[in-house]
Amino acid sequence: MSSSSYPDLDLSDLLPGDFGLTLGRSQISKLIAWAGDSLYSHAFLVYDTSQLIEAAPAGVRMVPIAERLREPSLLLFDVYRPSSAKGESYNAAEVRAMQIKAREFLGRGYPLNELLQLGLMCALRNKIPQSEPLRWILRIAMDALIRDDSRQMMCSELIYRILRDAESSPNVLTPTIINPTRSHAAMPPIDFAELLREIEALFPKSDAVENAAIHAAYQDKQIPSVAELDAKAQLIRAKFAAPTPTAGAFVVPNPNPKTILPSDLERSPSVRFLARVRRA
Length: 280
Description:
By secondary structure, the chain is α+β, with helices and mostly antiparallel strands. The protein is built from ten helices and ten strands. The two termini are 22 Å apart.
């Protein structure tokens, strides 16, 4: 569908629980979208009719939706609406549960030191294997090996954790994550000099105090023991049941939130595209 044929949406039409998927103008945004075989590089959750919650380099925060729309770096802003198995939007109790859980995550950090590593792994996961079952198996293995740590979160990870962990009975908010068919999108043109400047801006030179803080945050990341590695192997083997096809793809059982990309939310059968928000 071309951008000119997208339906428009006013901010007044947004509902709590909707999520926005956006694309920025930066070189990093281009690479994130390419790694996920997607149009999008960032995701946020609509908290209420005027605010969104997102994971950004400054940490998990609330931002006025209107303020986000005024950002000159934003190329597009599409809205997706999660729904129940019957296609219904969230009810009042589910919205409250989502908002309560969202507030619990405010102030959490952003894993800048792991961004490149996770991006490369997700790109390999999505683009290398030709076989669909092999790509599904690779994702299961990667999900088991990467630490599921909610102290620092990326954008789409935050949305998945909020919806998965919100206390609703039964929990119908968790999006189904599928391993989509492999695309053949070419790598976009990248201005590598500008990319380097963007990376340097994300990782400014740290003084001794900042270095000490980084060391303290990661001091518990030790080499895993043989028993821990064996436990991870058992987890991987337990998940290698026959994959369940859904809409031409395979369902990912209990996905690791750490490896969820904006494209995973975009392609979930639990959500539907709603509209493109008009920008001034």
